[in-house]
Amino acid sequence: MPIDIPDFHYRYFHNPRAAGAVAYGERQRAVLSAEGCRAARAEISTWPGYAPTPLVDLPGLAKALGLGRVRYKDESRRFELNSFKALGGAYAVMRLLIGEIERRKGISGVTSKDLLARTHADVTGDITVTCATDGNHGRSVAWGARNFGCNCTIFIHATVSEGRKQAIERYGARVERVAGNYDDSIKHAARAAAENGWFVVSDTSYEGYMDVPRDVMQGYTVMADEIVDQLEGDGPSHLFVQGGVGGFPAAVISQFWETWGTDRPRAVVVEPDKAACIFESMRQGHPTAVAGDLDTVMAGLACGEVSLLAWEILDQGADDVMEVSDAGVPACMRLLARGADGDPPLVAGESAVAGLLGLIAAMRDPDVAGQLGLGPESDVLLIGSEGDTDPELYREIVGQPGHNTRTAA
Asked: Which stretches are annotated as coiled coil (predicted)?
């Protein structure tokens, strides 16, 4: 079965600082560690509704692309949020609240079970968390605030859809729309927090703000740890993973790097061409912001500045980076929804298909495929980072609601 994806723009760049033959080091461990992952999984696995999301084999897609194997981690089934983000923002909210309770009461040993039981509602009820979001991270923070008993105000920028705004509001958060792009909304949230005594729970780090984003990223490593368990042995040869501010790919790469060492998969980070901050940072050799409205259909990846913490891992841990245009996104979503040559149908949102787009671009370009070492023996891992998190947009693009796609599976 041919892959019916229209032509789209892409660019490829190999990271000259990639350290494929180097073990996971202290620079990286200062950001994310196996110990931190174990602690995060111990807490998150006790949350109501927790279960590892499926790792789905896609032999039809692999055959169509000329690859040995393609597997897809399906985050559309993550809690009730249908996104990997559920692991990050909510975990950081939990950690923040536990820290405040223990500090204010002079106690230790508080857990998420205590928060869920409202044991310390006298403290948590006076705390407000806030962040800027393009959708999924804000939902996770709002969900965590509702579950663990604190207040929440979320800021969204001009191009965030009304559907994503309403999805956040369903968890009881107050949502305010501000002018500008995602990076402008980050600055607005920081100012509002300073003026009101709120706590920022951001998924991106910057000078003077590191601890909470580290917790967010550590929550993401739980997903990568599930993959390690599900593979039951050697890792894949290649990983194609979405970019954004970098916290997500850094978390996945770090867990694989620490687990498999120099045998870790070759990691290719893929971004929208209108928000390719990791691509530009790789080219320049240091964190580099990109300007513009960052307007891409891949809304969860519409980020103009790489997280400084994420850069500590990506600088050497990301082997390659690609940027792709929006033109191929709808067809990729439809391809996964119908399944290629007998593959199970998958609900993939707009941001979930960036990795697949990068893989398709690479396999269409013999030079890029050759540089990446992709071919009939390759075992590729894709991560479907979200499902139909904007249900109306998903229906418009795919031609049916996500429920129908799931039922067909």
From this structure: none
